[in-house]
Design brief:
alpha/beta, UDP N-Acetylglucosamine Acyltransferase, domain 1, 12-stranded parallel beta sheet, 7-stranded parallel beta sheet
Length: about 180
């Protein structure tokens, strides 16, 4: 369901993207080409004033946001999701936040005031708050990272982990087409 926010911003969705009928997209949200937005997803940009130029959510081309994930840009904040990124089931991203291209954000991960570089593998049940993660890093299951010193100790992703992330994106890449056109028949 696409809905306006308080200042009547309507979400913008590329015609090739698939939005599940049970997803809720509110406000200044821009969803790129060939994206998949699963059941129960909430993308909410709470812009309460026309003077607020920052509040928005942008989802890059070919990204996948799986069931029950929540992305919430509170007033005066924004969320940017790069191209070819997977945000898995039940993850929560609270603005301000930036997620680079080709990332994998695991189930029930929580990101708040976080900047994530490209090709970062965030496993399930992680908490990342008030940190900047450089590109090509691995964050193990259940990690709670709230200090930049902890970020500095993260290891680079391995070739095998990078292949897993790429495979996840490739397998999900066709979701928008499969769902969009199978439901229109």
């Amino acid at each position: 369901m696409l809905r306006v926010n308080v200042v009547k911003d309507m979400p913008q969705v590329d015609s090739t993207a698939y939005i599940d009928p049970d997803a809720i997209i509110i406000g200044r949200v821009c969803i790129g080409a060939h994206c998949f937005i699963g059941a129960g997803v909430v993308l909410r940009a709470d812009r309460f004033s026309l003077d607020d130029e920052r509040c928005s959510i942008v989802v890059g081309d070919g990204s996948v946001i799986q069931d029950a994930a929540i992305l919430h840009a509170h007033s005066e904040t924004g969320i940017q999701v790069g191209s070819g990124t997977t945000i898995n089931h039940g993850a929560v991203v609270y603005g301000p936040a930036t997620i680079g291209d080709g990332c994998f954000i695991g189930c029930k991960a929580i990101l708040h005031y976080a900047t994530i570089g490209s090709n970062v593998f965030v496993r399930s049940n992680c908490v990342l708050e008030s940190v900047a993660i450089p590109a090509d890093r691995f964050i193990d299951i259940g990690a709670c990272i709230t200090q930049q010193e902890e970020v500095d100790r993260l290891r680079p992703i391995t070739g095998e982990e990078k292949q897993f992330m790429q495979r996840a994106v490739e397998e999900s890449r066709d979701y928008s087409v499969r769902y969009k056109y199978s439901l229109e028949i």
